Amino acid sequence: MRTCILALFSFLHLQAHSQVIPLREQANVINEILGERLNNLLPSLMLETGIDMWVLVSREYNEDPVLETMLPAEWMSARRRTILVFYRNAQKGSYEKLAIARYNVGEHIKASWDMQKFPDQWDALADIIQTRKPAKIGINTSKHHAHADGLDHTDHQEMMAKIPAAFRNKVESAEDLAIRWLETRTEREMSIYPQLVAITHRIIDEGFSENVITPGITTTDDVVWWFREKIRGMGLETWFQPSVAVQRNDPENFEHLRSFSNRPAGEIIRPGDLLHVDIGISYLRLNTDIQQHAYVLRAGETSLPPYLKAAFAKSNRLQDILTSNYAEGKTGNLVLAASLEQAKKEGITASIYTHPLGYHGHAAGSTIGLWDQQGGVPGAGDYPLHNRTAWSIELNTATDIPEWKKSIRIMLEEDGYLDKHGFRYINGRQKEIHLIPKPKDSRGN
Question: How far apart are CA 240 and CA 282, in angstroms?
């Protein structure tokens, strides 16, 4: 008993300080959430989208993006060929979760392959279809949504050749079901998400400080790799390489391509620099995606120059314009067009490239602009917004700075959530640019 109490105390102490729980506990949480989703969420989504049988197929190391989220935490990949079948019989009120595999897929999906009767795995699938007689068989194929297009060419060919001929015309894309599964967040997940975003904000706050940056010595690459090491040291992962970029009073223009592909490596950070970070972490199968700014104070400066404060306020205003247009049922393209029109009326030079967030960083759901497609995104932008979805509010505004004799961009990205109550930020958003060094309070701290 004493050992259990000590273990519990240690676990709670770890949570309170690092907030990153041990791997074993992470696996328990992931599997509990997965069980809730498979047993409670999925049947309702199948009803909503009109699919009564959903067939997912993956071979090891070539995982369908959807099937990958249905594997237990202890599985690092599918095994050999893994076939999952979810069947909902509306008339009988029954619901089945079947694995045409050699073993159970975790606790919730039971192995349903009689290898003595059906040595060929596809014959086992054909038997399940023949005995249950589904009206609609959904498979993961999609033109516009990569997350819903996980059935590969070979498996599709073999499957269609093997299923009973009478059911081949009942096979259709499960695009909507796949997207809804990936984009819909549960209450349990949304109780966890604020922790992920808070951790990300704290990492940025420390990285954009004098503890990490010494002007004249520290380079942008130094800070990038500090972020990588910090994230790894906390027992977390990042789903993309962080970036740190500089805008300053020089002749160099700052454009998207320079930010992503032509950014100078290892620029030395100097006083007067406006810094930008793009960073995201992965934890408990969820992801964050955040961009913020910092300013390096010049000698004698104690606050942000007014022209940078005014430029920053424009991007905060653009965030407000965009999120005020969020509503279930609107398409991403409609939200984009309305937001850009309002921004133009207010004299804001705006660019919006906002995306869903969840099991992937650039997640399934409606796309609200791409940085190089401000007139709308065919296909993905025509998909409607749904409640219970997380979002990465990603955008920028351009402002002419006479003092620098050029235009700068304030690029912000903050994570939020849309539900029946409207849109909200999951853990607030940046409203003031970080200062380096951080100002002392009245007590000199």
Answer: 10
- At position 41, the amino acid (one-letter code) is L
- From residue 190, give the alpha-carbon distance in Å to each of 76, 134, 193, 202: 24, 34, 5, 19
The whole-angstrom separation of Cα 408 and Cα 247 is 7
Domain ranges of the chain: 17-181, 186-436
**Residues 143, 138: Cα–Cα separation, whole Å:** 15
Cα distance between residue 210 and residue 437, in whole Å: 5
Q: Which of 179, 162, 215, 239 is nearest to 54 (CA)?
A: 179
Q: Which residues contact 229 (CB under 8 A, 6 or more apart)?
A: none
Question: Per the structure block, which two tokens stand in for 14?
Answer: 């770890």
pLDDT, average across residues 71-88: 90
Task: Return the closest-CA partner of residue 65 out of 77, 51, 73.
Answer: 77
Q: Which residue has 């959807």 as its token pair?
A: 66
Token pair for residue 261? 């592909």
Ranking 108-122, 178-192, 267-281, 400-414 by mean pLDDT, the lowest is 108-122
Tokens standing for residue 11: 């676990």
Q: Given CATH 3.90.1300.10, say whether it is the number of domain 17-181.
A: no
* Per-residue 3-state assignment (H helix, E strand, C coil) for 125-187: HHHHHHHHCCCCEEECCCCCCHHHCCCCHHHHHHHHHHCCHHHHHHEEECHHHHHHHHHCCCH
Q: What is the largest CA-CA distance in the chain?
A: 82
For residue 5, pLDDT over 80 is answered with: no
CB neighbourhood size of 179 (10 A): 26
Cβ distance 314 to 401 under 8 Å?
no
Whether the Cβ atoms of residue 290 and residue 413 lie closer than 8 Å to each other: yes
Residues comprising the chain, all counted: 445
pLDDT tens sequence across 340-398: 999 999 999 999 999 999 999 999 999 999 999 999 999 999 999 999 999 999 999 99
Q: Kindly provide the b/e burial profile for residues 372-393, where b requires at least 16 CB atoms within 10 angstroms of the residue's own CB.
A: eeeebbeebbebebbbbbbbbb
What pLDDT, on a 0 to 100 scale, did the predictor assign at position 261? 54
Q: What CATH number was assigned to the domain covering residues 186-436?
A: 3.90.230.10
pLDDT at 93: 85
Question: How does residue 105 score in pLDDT terms, banded at 50, 70 and 90?
Answer: confident
High-pLDDT (> 70) share of the chain, %: 92
Residue 386 is classified by DSSP as -
pLDDT at 322 > cutoff 70: yes
Two structure tokens written together for 173: 């894309």
Q: What does the block give as tokens for 352?
A: 């919006």
Task: Select the more confidently predicted residue: 14 or 225.
Answer: 225
Residue 10 has pLDDT above 50, yes or no: no
Contact 42, 76 (CB under 8 A): no
